[in-house]
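Figure 2 data, in text form.
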Amino acid sequence: MKGCSVTIKGVYKSFGATPILENIDLEIKKGEFFSMLGPSGCGKTTLLRCIAGFESLSQGSVFLGDREVTNLPPNERPVNTVFQNYALFPHLNVFENVAFPLRIKRSKTNLIQEKVRHYLELVKLSDHLNKMPNQLSGGQRQRVAIARALINEPEVLLLDEPLSALDAKLRHQLLVDLDALHDEVGITFIYVTHDQQEALGVSDRIAVMDKGKILQVGSAFEIYDQPANAFVAEFIGETNLFTGQVDMVIGSDIMVSIDQLGLLKITSTISVLPFSQVTVSLRPEKITLYHRLPLNTQGPVFRGIVEEIVYAGYQSRIYVKVGERLISVQQPHVVGAGSDHFSWKEPVFITWDPTSCRLVEVASP
C-alpha cells in the first residue's frame, strides 16, 4: 500500500479571538480513503488546509508518516490539493496543465510525455489532451485538476469539496470514478465534503465535525447505524428523535416514557439509570407502515394519519402524524405489489422492532 499515515495531535486553530478548531486529535491510516464531513463553517476545510500547510497552527502538531511537518511550507510536504474551483491555467491546454508540476521540476521530456499520458488515461481524458479548459465540462476540468495533483505522486491527496460545483448526476459518476482511482493509485485520500451521501458512498472511515470539533470517527456503517450523539444521527441521513425519561431498566431492555407515545421498550447495550433523560434515534427505514392493525408484532403499534407523501421513484418518504408528533417513514415500492400504496389523510398503523432504536443522548438524573 502506498501513501502515508496522517496524524494530528492537539491541534487548535483560531482566527483572532474566534476558535475554528479545538483540540483535534486524529489518526488517518496509510492508503485510507478518509472523509471529513460536516456543515459549512464546522472547520473541516481549515483542518485540511492545516494538513496542506496553507494555514499555520495556533497549537498542536501534524505528522505525515513519522515525520513532523507542522512548520514546513506546503511545497516541502508530500501532499497535493484538489480545489473546488479547479484552479486550472486558462492559457494552457489539458496536456500542459497536467504537465506543469513536472515542467517546474525540469523533468525530462520523455518522462513528462509518459506520465501525463498515464494520468490522463487514469482520469479518462486521453482524447482531450489538446483541448483548452474552456472547452471542457465541469467534470472534465475537475478530472484535469485531479490528474495534475497526482502527477507528482504525492503520498497524500487532499480533496476540498471537489464535486460541489457539479450537477447531481455528474457528481455521482465522478464520485464512482474517484473511488476507482483511489484503488488504482493506492495513496491516502482525505476528502472534505458537506454531502452525507458522498462520504457514506466512498469512505473507509469518516470524521463527523461540528463547531471545530470531531464528534465521531468510524466506518460508514458505524456512523449511520451507531451515531455517537443526536447531531450525528440527524446530520447523517434522516432520523426521528424522541426525548423522554427512563422509567425502568431490566437487563438490556430500557423502558422510556415519551410524550404522546407513552412507554416504549428500547433494547440497548448502553448503561442508563432510572429517571435519566434520554434521546432516542429511530431511522425512517426501520419503521413498518400498515393499512390495518398488525398482529403479532414485537414492538409498539401506533395509529396515525398520513400527513404528507414525498415520492422518490423507488421509494416514498411518508410523514405520519401520531397525536401532535410527525414521524418520518421510508416506504419502498415493491414491484407488482400494489398494496404498498398509501394515500394522503389515510388512517394507518406504524410499528418497529425495539432493537432498531439507538440511544444518542443520556443525561443522568
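Caption note: The helical segments are 44-52, 94-104, 109-122, 138-150, 168-185, 196-202, 220-225, 230-235.
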